[in-house]
Amino acid sequence: MRLLAALLLAFPATAAPLQPGAPHLQLRLEGLFGQPTTQLGARGGAALGAGWRMTDQLWLIADAGQRAAPGGGIGSLAFGIQATLDATPISPYVEVAMVDLSNRRALGYSLATRTALGADWMFSRAAGIGVVVRTYTALDPENDNPTLAGLEAAFRLVLTPGAL
Q: Does the pTM of the predicted model rise above 0.90?
């Protein structure tokens, strides 16, 4: 975790500015699968997200998702930062985000940090596909249970409006 924090602090100092006319907005449609908490088994869901490119390597990210679960499902709303490690057709990245989750009764927590490793393959300037693996660490676990955490994978379609 310390290495990830050090990387995210180092990126702003080394990030290259965007080229003039480069699109800033990216839309992401995700299929989710994983175990959002140790209290439930694996389940699927979907999310819609967006990224706002600040520099060649840094993005502000946000997404909203829904997963199947007892008691009405699990909704999530996340905000964070993404650091792209290499901007080639296959772009690996790390993410750190804060996530507010619904259905505390099923999860055992409602606020978490989310760390992720992923890669997107941009097969054209306007579209790509990607995969990301995320971990959730509960910040407000019920009964101070330190084992409440989650793990999920997302397969995503990435669209860049305005890219030629």
A: no
